């Protein structure tokens, strides 16, 4: 393998997802082919054409936060913080100057639950009943700020807001901070919790959501011939990144690495993908060039695969253009978890690392029969498929035309 | 409402909003140092008092209020004015 630049090591990972709140549960959930789609119960959906989502009903903030801390955080930050704490626990003693520890967190919308709650309060009770905590709870950068605040990390700290690409952009920008020498350690990831009455209504009005309300557990079906839209999900994924040599020197366990990162923009339409997946094609190529790898060296494509008719068609075409006749197996996490929006790219990068660590590609949940219009894309479905140790490409494409691709590499052989 | 009754209600608001033990809420307790209430938390606490006692406390009247006893004085004044 020839690399143009040194890969960055992943020494800790944490997830909070609709199919599992730790790495083992997440991985076994992915392999089971089960989808978390279920009726929404935390608000009244009787007026909504879409009545289901992939939530995390059993998330327990008390395991990570005092009641006082939790009272002043939006759920998106609780999920993100919890995933970051898990990742840090796995990474062990960092041995880093806090001024050299950075945090990069992605999200699509930040604290939408809090914003909606406070708008309701304003409408019902007036301006003087709006909480003084609304701004710090809802601002998109709250998760990045809170992680640093709790741990005293005073290095670079920012939030990436690129819709459904935010989680992947966060990991990519974080890897650049390490490669450029701007930080010794970066806590990077994404979080989203926007399954609210208005959020659900808004995504539905775009025509983006599946309407399979009589069968929510089979609604998210990436690349399947019967797919009809995405299913909203919530969750978070965080990793700990550091220079490979540094990780080795401190005796940290390396779970895998980020070897390449590509990002660009369609500049075609605010929500629709560019025809032929042109932006996505270039984005994947940029990531491969950055990693110094050829398409033949990629063992698995972890697709953005939202389950919307348009996205999956554009991505399948883009993958075919990049890989030609030798397309590696493709899978999408979103059949199982729904669409975690700004968390998706981070959670899916972690899924890619777990796939490499376990020597298997997880099946795409609910994928029964590949849409024949997608041109022979090899979608893993039904059961996990054995995978030789090889780098993976993980794609994320966001509303706004934002594209981000990561090339992930396996842990060194033990 | 007498002062001890008002204090009991203020104390329960503090437990609820400031997430402190009831025992920590004495008339001498300082919001910032003893109850870990920053300026935002203090505003949230006053909102809770306004709802509990059905009073209105303009922000400028909070200047100089640093202790629980001063907040209770303010509440008693408001209650007397509206009686």
Q: How would you describe the overall organization of this protein?
A:
The complex is a heterodimer of chains A (414) and B (83). Chain A is of the alpha/beta class and 414 residues long. Chain A is 33% helix and 18% strand. Chain A has helices at 23-32, 67-71, 75-91, 112-125, 134-138, 142-151, 166-179, 197-205, 244-249, 278-291, 309-323, 334-337, 344-358, and strands at residues 8-16, 38-39, 52-53, 101-106, 157-160, 185-192, 235-243, 256-265, 300-302, 330-331, 360-361, 385-386, 392-398, 402-410. In chain A, β9, α11 (309-323) and β10 form a beta-alpha-beta unit. Chain A starts with 7 loop residues before the first strand and ends with a strand. Chain B has a single domain (3-82), classed as Orthogonal Bundle (Non-ribosomal Peptide Synthetase Peptidyl Carrier Protein, Chain A). Chain B contains four helices and no strands. Chain B has helices at residues 3-18, 31-35, 39-53, 68-82. In chain B, α1 packs across α3 (39-53). The mean pLDDT of chain B is 95. Chain A binds chain B through residues 66-68, 71, 128-129, 131-133, 136, and chain B through 18-19, 36, 39-40, 43-44, 47, 50, 56.
In short:
Chain A is α/β, with parallel strands linked by helices and 414 residues long. Chain A has helices at residues 23-32, 67-71, 75-91, 112-125, 134-138, 142-151, 166-179, 197-205, 244-249, 278-291, 309-323, 334-337, 344-358; strands spanning 8-16, 38-39, 52-53, 101-106, 157-160, 185-192, 235-243, 256-265, 300-302, 330-331, 360-361, 385-386, 392-398, 402-410.
């Amino acid at each position: 393998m020839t690399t143009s630049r040194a890969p960055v090591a992943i020494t800790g990972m944490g997830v909070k997802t609709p199919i599992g709140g730790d790495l083992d549960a997440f991985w076994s959930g992915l392999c089971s082919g089960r989808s978390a789609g279920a009726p929404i119960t935390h608000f009244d959906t009787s007026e909504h054409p879409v009545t289901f989502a992939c939530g995390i009903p059993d998330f327990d903030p008390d395991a990570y936060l005092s009641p006082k801390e939790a009272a002043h955080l939006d759920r998106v930050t609780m999920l993100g913080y919890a995933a970051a704490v898990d990742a840090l626990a796995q990474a062990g003693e960092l041995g880093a100057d806090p001024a050299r520890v950075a945090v990069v967190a992605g999200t699509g919308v930040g604290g939408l639950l809090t914003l909606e709650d406070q708008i309701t309060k304003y409408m019902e009770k007036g301006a003087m009943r709006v909480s003084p905590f609304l701004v710090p709870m809802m601002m998109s950068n709250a998760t990045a700020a809170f992680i640093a605040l709790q741990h005293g990390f005073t290095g670079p700290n920012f939030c990436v807001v690129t819709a459904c690409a935010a989680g992947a952009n966060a990991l990519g920008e974080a890897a650049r901070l390490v490669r450029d020498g701007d930080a010794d350690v970066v806590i990077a990831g994404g979080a989203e919790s926007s399954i609210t009455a208005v959020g659900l209504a808004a995504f539905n009005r775009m025509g983006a959501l599946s309407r399979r309300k009589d069968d929510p557990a089979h609604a998210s079906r990436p690349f399947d011939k019967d797919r009809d839209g995405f299913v909203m999900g919530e969750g978070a994924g965080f990793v700990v990144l550091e220079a490979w040599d540094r990780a080795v020197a401190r005796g940290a366990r390396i779970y895998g690495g980020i070897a390449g990162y590509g990002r660009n923009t369609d500049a075609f339409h605010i929500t629709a993908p560019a025809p032929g997946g042109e932006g996505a094609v270039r984005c994947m190529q940029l990531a491969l060039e950055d990693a110094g790898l050829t398409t033949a060296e990629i063992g698995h494509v972890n697709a953005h695969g939202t389950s919307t008719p348009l996205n999956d068609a554009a991505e399948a075409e883009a993958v075919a253009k990049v890989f030609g006749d030798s397309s590696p197996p493709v899978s999408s996490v979103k059949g199982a978890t729904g669409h975690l929006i700004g968390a998706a790219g981070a959670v899916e990068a972690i899924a890619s690392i777990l796939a490499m660590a376990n020597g298997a590609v997880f099946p795409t949940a609910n994928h029964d029969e590949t849409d024949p219009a997608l041109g022979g894309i090899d979608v893993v479905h039904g059961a996990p498929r054995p995978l030789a140790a090889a780098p993976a490409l993980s794609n994320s494409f966001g509303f706004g035309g934002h594209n981000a691709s990561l090339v992930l590499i396996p842990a060194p052989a033990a | 409402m007498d002062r001890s009754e008002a204090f009991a209600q203020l104390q329960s608001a503090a437990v609820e909003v400031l997430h402190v033990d009831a025992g920590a809420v004495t008339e001498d307790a300082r919001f910032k140092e003893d109850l870990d209430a920053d300026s935002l938390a203090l505003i949230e606490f006053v909102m809770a008092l306004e709802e509990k006692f059905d009073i209105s406390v303009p922000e400028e009247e909070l200047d100089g209020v640093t202790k629980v006893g001063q907040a209770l004085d303010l509440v008693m004044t408001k209650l007397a004015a509206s009686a």
